[in-house]
Design goal:
Elements: H1 2-14, E1 29-32, E2 36-38, H2 39-42, E3 53-56, E4 63-66, H3 68-77, E5 91-95, E6 97-101, H4 102-112, E7 121-125, E8 131-135, E9 143-149, E10 155-162, E11 170-187, E12 202-208, E13 227-228, E14 243-244, E15 247-249, E16 254-260, E17 265-272, E18 276-277, E19 281-286, E20 292-299, E21 302-305, H5 307-314
Parallel strand pairs: 1-5, 16-21
Antiparallel strand pairs: 2-3, 4-5, 6-8, 7-11, 9-10, 10-11, 11-12, 13-14, 15-18, 16-17, 17-19, 19-20, 20-21
Amino acid sequence: MKSGFVSLVALMVLALPGHGFAQSMLQPSASVTGDTIHVGDLFTNTGTHAMESVAAAPAIGQRVTFSASWLGAVASEHHVAWTPSSDYDRATVERATRFLTADTIGQRLLTEMATNTTADTTIQFDNPGIRFVVPAEASDSIALDGVTLDQRSGRFSAFVSAPADSPNPQRQRVSGRVVYQLTVAVPSRGIAIGDVVGPNDLQTIKLPRERVAGDTVTDASQLVGKAAKRVLRVGELVRAGDVQDPILVHKGETVMIELDTDVMQLTTQGRAMEDGALGASIRITNIQSNRVIDAVIAGSGRAVINRVSNRIASR
């Protein structure tokens, strides 16, 4: 009797923390990586038995539920200090997964079609919700085959396999359109007719190439210093005919006309018969002789006689 009492006390002592025989508890739910369920996935405090295999992991995206009797048998076989408290004890194990979404697939497609696309492109899938459910431990590797691309329309199709390094990858057909985008300079504020565009008057936006007309001015450097020929609204595309060089001489204004040759320099006053920007040739009436001459705008209120044009006009 005394011997049995001593054994019971020894067993109780071993069950205390620090003596390697702590009571285990059932884990009602668990998420596992890899192809195997281990003792430590089902119970706590399993010590050296934690990595012992007990069952195959469920398939990707699936889960499996184990009964109380099965769990009790596993605990006994693997020396785990746990017994079912009732027939309702259960443990549900699911395979840890993650998703490869359209963003990942799209980037891989753009890389594959790099020789046929520009750096500034996006992918529009016919099914934007496309995704691959893969094991949590799997890589992001994707394999492509059967890739086709219509340069004119941007339409593409391909077969995607993921993960590429898996012995049994999933395979799906994807299709959609490559959208070529352009960076376009547009007004950041309203610009009135005649106002000169400054660098702080512009911002850039990205638009699909098909939405940008061929005569659209896309580069900010081609707009800065130009004068608006119509009201330019915020965010609106600017076409070549919407701007011009600033008008330095307006119709009806008095202009100083200069003639500078190797032997003489003459100046006289004239009246502009039309508007003129820097470098533009306009008709000017000489106030003294009342003769109409052609002159090139050289600055504000200043024009230089175009001797060649006037010689031809006088013949």
